[in-house]
Every structure is written in structure tokens, then in C-alpha cells.
């Protein structure tokens, strides 16, 4: 994902981030991400039961373990900010659990695609807002992002399957579209309930002046993920 | 666990380990431990569904994630030794899965006790043989051991429950005894099928000249764990 370079006069301006470190939306952002990591952990391990072999189960377990590493980064950051972590996370339980309930995979390939798209959507979301956050906040976000390479094992397996079967390709392309749709729906519910988060997202970055634009951008990067998986 | 100090003439002897690094039992030891970590990962996450709250689910998920960290240490060591990791692990699937099937907890407290006893038994086993292994092997074993502190959260919760209820205490004491019995049974099956492992255990350490003595020692350290949990 490449962003347009800022014009020279913008570079000359003071490098103050658009959002201050004590913006209340930061606590909410970390809390929803933290719940997301724990929810992803449990979903990955449940969906791994569909793995055809031990190797697949091990790969999913490693990815799930990485989610808990991300969770611990977010928990530590919330604790440093004096937030009651579990209470803050609990507010986001229903949106995240609804997303997973609405997107329960019925095959191993659907589980793999969900893992990959889910990781990628989270990464896109972080990247959209990270650059306008103060350094101490951005560094937490970056370290949560840094391990998503785990899901690369998915690409080889999905590409092999969709190269072998056009029917499988159409089926998984529809599935991936549904994953994006549900993620956007639940993200909108979350934003509707949390003004601090809307304010954080709205005040982030040059281009991010409208939520619609933000979601359009997610759609665009989603498309490039579909191409990576051989689904577009 | 304190071991008797070796006599002075023993210290004067050359410090060569009792087992060489290319003993075939080392591959088998790492493989059974590796399968054990992956099996523990999946069991912990399944049993965590009984947690009464989000905090309990998070604690279990962190412990499970730590198991995958141990797995990765063992996998790397096996790969350095030129072993086909997944194939080597698969030989131990039935013993480990049988152990878990025979010890499926029916309450959250049983799940907690199983976690703690399981971690402790694995640690006891490692400690029994680690000191006679060559340094490169012992360091793998030590780094797998080093994170078992995660299960300390179990102690507070179990002690509180058994202090409040004598019935609960008796029930969990029986449960813990059953866990030890099943672990010993499955360990004996594993040893019966793998001469290289028997040879490794038999040639480990001064006191470890007989398997019966080895199992007696496990029983003894198990008792001290029962005391820690308030069950003995």
C-alpha cells in the first residue's frame, strides 16, 4: 500500500501528530484490538480442527499463539495507560463475536481464507491510522503488526486449491467478499457506539477525512489480497 | 526439587555427560515433547471454554501460546538435527491423545488442576534427565522449561476453592491422583514402544538406574505439587 508523498510545504510544517497520546479513542482502539486478538486466538484454534493433517494444525496453532503475543503487547500498553484491561475489552465482545459467528467457515479452505483476510484487514486498518498517531502509540501498533507474516503459509495452500478447481475459486471468492462485508458491518456498529473511536479515525491522516473514504480504501486493499490468493 | 550433592570423588571425575548428543533417544525425546506441546495447546484452548469469565479464558490462552513457544524451540532443535519433525511427532500422537481423552475435565477447577499438574509433571521429567544430557541438548530442555511460571495463576484460584469447600478438596485430590496415574500409564506405553527412549532415561543421572525409581520420584514431586494446590 503506497500513500502519496506529502507536498514540500507540508514536510516543512511541525511534525506534531494529528492525535495526542491521551486521546480517549486510543484506549478504545487498543481495547477493541485486544479483544480482537483474543477472539481470533479462540476462533483459529476452533477452526483448526478442520485441518486435514498435523502440519495444518501446527500452522494454525502458531498463528493463534502469535495473536496472544499481540494481545500481550496491547494489554501492557493499556496497563501503562491505567486502563482496567478486561473491563475495557468486554465492551467490544459482541461485535467481535458476531463477526466470527456470521463467518463460521465450513471447510478448511474457508478457514484458511478467513485467517488470511482477517489478518490483512486488521493490518490495513492499523496502517491507515498508525502514521497519524504519536510515536508511543504507533510503536505499539507496529509491533502488533510485525508478525502477520505467519499467515503466508495460507497463500500457497489456497493458490494450489483454486488453480486446480474453478468451482473452488468462485466459491472462495464469494466467501472472501462475505468476510469483508461482515467486517465492515461490525466495524460500523463499533463506530456507531463509540464516538471516541470515530473521532480518532476522523482525525487520522490527510486523506482520512471521511469514513466512507476509509472503507473504500479497505475495499481496495482487500482486492489486492484477493489477487494474492488467486481469487481475483 | 533438591538433589543430593555428588560426593567429592565424583566431582573430580571428568565432566563428560552420561549421554552423547547423537544418542537416538534425543530425537525421540524432543519428538514426544513436541507432540506434547501441540496436544497441550489444543487441550488448553478446548478446556478454556469452561472458564467462568474472560479473564480465565485469557489466562488459559496465554498458557497455550507459551506451549507453542516451547514447541517452536523443540522443532528448531529437531530441524538442526536433520529430523523430519512432523513424521517424528506423529509416532507419539496416540499416547498423548489417549492421556488427554482419559483425563477430560468436567469442571473449570478440574481443568485448572490438570493444567498445573501436567506442566509440573513435564518439568519434573525434564529435570530428572536434563543434568545428564550434553549442554546443547540440556539448553533446549531448559528453555522449554523456563516459561512454566504461566501456570502460577492456577494456584490462587484452586487454593481459594478448596479452602472454601472440603468436598471440593477431596474431589480435586482424587482428580489429581488420576492425572498422575494416567500420565504414568501413558509414559510406560511410550517407553515400551521406544527402546531408544528407555536407554536414554536409564543412562541419565546417578540415581536413575531403574525406571521404577524414576516413577517413584515423579510420585514424590507430585505430592509436593498437591500441597502447593492445597490438595494434600
From TrEMBL, chains A, B:
Residue numbers spanned by region Disordered: 1-20
All residue ranges annotated as the Ferritin-like domain in the record: 25-202
Short name of any one Pfam family annotated for the protein: MiaE_2
Low complexity bias locations: 1-18
Name of this protein: Hydroxylase
